[in-house]
From TrEMBL:
Protein name (Swiss-Prot/TrEMBL): 6-phospho-beta-glucosidase
Catalytic activity: 6-phospho-beta-D-glucosyl-(1->4)-D-glucose + H2O = D-glucose 6-phosphate + D-glucose
GO annotation, cellular component aspect: cytosol
Catalytic class of the enzyme: hydrolase
Protein keywords: Glycosidase, Hydrolase
Organism: Bacillus spizizenii (strain DSM 15029 / JCM 12233 / NBRC 101239 / NRRL B-23049 / TU-B-10) (Bacillus subtilis subsp. spizizenii)
A Pfam cross-reference name: Glyco_hydro_1
Signal sequence extent: none
One Gene Ontology term from the biological process aspect of the record: carbohydrate catabolic process
Molecular function in Gene Ontology: 6-phospho-beta-glucosidase activity
Transmembrane intervals: none
Family (UniProt): Belongs to the glycosyl hydrolase 1 family.
SUPFAM superfamilies in alphabetical order: (Trans)glycosidases (SSF51445)
Family annotation (InterPro entries): GH, GH_1_N_CS, Glyco_hydro_1
Length: 468
């Protein structure tokens, strides 16, 4: 019987352009929706401003300067032994306003250099096409509420699929696509509490993704295209049947996104909900065939925590943590930011998703946001991060060995400190590599290897056998 992680397992780490690159207007880049989000201050959620307002701090504008330091950063990833680097292309670097006919060559050249550097070290890029940064110029169309944006997205996809043919073979169409139900501005430049608007935007993203999957396969038969799910996984508050049903309802709200992208059609429970709520999808001739023909090759997802849901749950999607259900799990410790730490839940989630879809899975975000301290000698002792990751990897290994689940790879979030999506902070650090930048963007930007850096290097060298 095979034991442990497969030989070709894609070990690595994951970042996003808007949280890492900075250089927000360099080399012809246009503004994105991320570039008008301020940092969270004193627990108040990030503000979305009308353009860039003088005197306000926007973390994405400088981030950790990965745009200029990617060679140094990828060399550090290679030192850990990365097989895979999940990253995103900033759409507005390629089409600054989103609707141009001719792409920005400087942006294309930058990512040529990034991918060439990856391949220099034998690192396989896994590229997210749209990661929480829709070009701001598309708001004049209504962003994803307007079907025209599908064509702009496909023009972008066609450009990068052709340009990077042979350099990139793993793609994700949209980051955490179900965030359209929780934080629609991040998901696609949609600012509305109206469910009809959100479901119209989600429909257009489903259609865009399905067409992009088919296009990627046509351009290069070696391309593999996945979806990316924000890993909302819930336990019932009790064995009360009403708590069980409330949990099922919650999971339906999230998993229908996976249903459409993995199965190629809307599930009956969602169609009945639309019927009750009076929501009408803007379906045109041929659309349903496109969804069916554009099913993804694999399912990737983020996993940080689990929720507890019950009959008295009144969902709140406006907090910094994405969703509040009103219940706490007394069996689990929490992070500095109040997120449940649930390593066994990772195995549970892998089983839930594979049982449901029967396609390969990949965990493309998993990590611990914590406050790290640089010692006088320049070291960073983050044993808490090692403990978190070790426990999760042990559960992933069980999912492979005991449950027989095909898992393609694991890209920890984020291998280098970057600004946090939920808060815009730097003090909420995830990395194996410390970056000397504070919450106001001040610092030397110096990179420092943490203890976890050396631990993860041993994990990869041993293909997951040395976890202690």
């Amino acid at each position: 019987m095979d034991k442990g992680f497969p030989e070709n397992f894609l070990w690595g780490g994951a970042t996003a352009a808007n949280q890492a690159e900075g250089a927000y207007l360099t080399d012809g880049k246009g503004l994105s929706t991320a570039d008008v989000m301020t940092a969270s201050v004193h627990g108040i959620p990030r503000e979305i401003t009308d353009g860039v307002v003088e005197g306000k701090y926007y973390p994405s504008h400088h981030a950790v300067d990965h745009y200029h330091r990617f060679k140094e950063d990828i060399a550090l990833f290679a030192e850990m032994g990365f097989k895979c680097y999940r990253m995103s292309i900033a759409w507005s670097r390629i089409f600054p306003n989103g609707d141009e006919e001719v792409p920005n060559e400087a942006g294309l050249k930058h990512y040529d250099d990034v991918f060439d550097t990856c391949h220099q070290y034998g690192i396989e890029p896994l590229v997210t096409l749209s990661h929480f940064e829709t070009p701001l110029g598309l708001l004049k169309y209504g962003s994803w509420e307007n079907r025209k944006v599908i064509d702009f997205y496909l023009q972008y996809c066609r450009t990068v699929f052709n340009r990077y043919k042979g350099k990139v073979k793993y793609w994700l169409t949209f980051n955490e696509i179900n965030v359209m139900s929780t934080k629609p501005w991040m998901a696609g430049g949609v600012q509305s509490d109206d469910e009809q608007t959100r479901m119209t935007a989600a429909y257009h993203q489903f259609l865009a993704s399905a067409k992009a999957v088919q296009m990627a396969h046509d351009i290069d038969a070696d391309n593999k295209v996945g979806m990316m799910y924000a890993g909302h996984i819930a336990y019932p508050n009790s064995c009360d049947p009403e708590d069980m049903q409330a949990t099922n309802d919650f999971m339906h709200k999230m998993l229908f996104y996976c249903d459409v992208q993995c199965r190629g059609y809307y599930p009956s429970y969602k169609l009945k909900e639309f019927e009750r709520e009076g929501i009408v999808l803007p379906i045109q001739d041929g659309d349903l065939e496109e969804l069916k023909n554009g099913k993804v090759d694999f399912l990737s997802y983020s996993y940080y925590l689990t929720h507890v849901v019950g009959k008295e749950t009144n969902l709140d999607f406006k907090g910094l943590n994405g969703v509040k259900t009103g219940y706490k799990n007394p069996y689990l410790p929490t992070s500095d930011w109040g997120w449940n730490i649930d390593s066994i839940g990772l195995r549970y989630s892998l089983n839930l998703l594979y049982d449901r879809y029967q396609i390969p899975l990949m965990v493309v975000e998993n990590g611990l946001g914590a406050i790290d301290k640089v010692e006088r000698d320049g070291s960073v002792h983050d044993s808490y991060r090692i403990d978190y990751l070790r426990d999760h990897l042990k559960e992933m290994k069980k999912a492979i060995e005991i449950d027989g689940i095909p898992i393609m790879g694991y890209t920890m979030w984020g291998p280098i400190d970057i600004i946090a999506a939920s808060t815009g902070e730097m003090k909420k650090r995830y990395g194996f590599i410390y970056v000397d930048v504070d919450d106001n963007g001040n610092g030397t930007f110096k990179r420092i290897r943490k203890d976890s850096f050396y631990w993860y290097k041993k994990v990869i060298e041993s293909n997951g056998e040395k976890l202690e």
